[in-house]
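Aggregate trends can hide what the representation actually does to any particular protein. The sequence in question and its structure tokens are set out directly beneath this paragraph.
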Amino acid sequence: MSSMPTPRDTAPPATARRGSLWNVETARQSIGVKACLDPEGAASRRWTRTPPRARIDTGWSAYYAPMADVSIVGAAGYTGQETLDRVLGHPELRLVAVGSDSLAGSGPGSLDPRLACAEMPAFVSNVEALATPADVTILCLSHEAAAEIEAPAEGVVVDLSGAHRLRDAGGYEAWYGFTHPRPDGLRDWVYGLPELVSEAGRLIANPGCYATATLLALAPIRDAVDPDSVVVDGLSGMTGAGRSLKASSHAGAVLENVTPYRVGAHQHVPEITQLLGFPVSLTPHLLPLRRGLIATCNVRSTGADLRALLEEAYAGSPVVTVLPAGMAPELARVQHTDRAEIGVFADRFTGRTMVICAEDNLGKGAAGQAIQNVNRALGLPETAGLRLGGVLV
């Protein structure tokens, strides 16, 4: 009689995934039918609130590694809802708390009827969601509300607001209009732009939407352009302004209209400056669209081939694509995705170069990037749970 297979004997092929037929059948043989059908046994082996992937082997046992528990604080806003959707579809994450002060006590369908049958808990207050033990806590709050919060002592924390992006606390008075209540803790947060910042940490400040597009376009070429030449025109859909009602986002103000706003005073400028090492002139505009963002960066090269530098920087990126010469980025291709496109064009009249980056302000500019940061912090595949494929019309 042959012996029972061991984990080493039954190592999965590279393409095997948790939940696949290979996993189920092999589990029945090697760990027994009861263990395969009894999720409680697996639940009892779940990790505590430390970065869970740090202690999990990459061999056979990794295919039965427990899922990471996630708490979302502020799930009723645009970025919160987009983050919720990605967590629900993520193969390695499980929701344990969904916070919203306006929806506390109500079921999932109160936010959107499409959630009525979703496998998720009912809404609780933001305070309760923040206090729920979790491996990952994602903050989708206003800048001031997020700044007031004391981050959980354990687990990964990702903040989608601007409350922890700047290292200089004085910048919050100048650019955000409030005094930061926890200035000494700002340097504990890592700026979470995975393509450009190699530093990792438990506390992650998710970049702003304009900052993401501008930095993806400029950071790889910052040493090859004249800093004084950089001018950025940004255009964004109205969801970039958030879900809260305001006169500037009423239909009568947005439809059939394009409006510059916060000219010379947009709060994403200091975080762009912080990473680049020099200031840029940014003029944002509101488009009569729900979502999507384009940043056109006008620069003067000091002699280097800017396209070559960008192609080299993103050659291995699954998220950022440098388009072929002559092809321009388009909002339609990046809307509802977590991708970004970059186009490079020469101005033959002035000798300047235009580097154009398109993204979805709620995708790569917010929730998609947050999940990308969670993946990196937990040691998961970078693209797990991201929206990167498809050719939607």
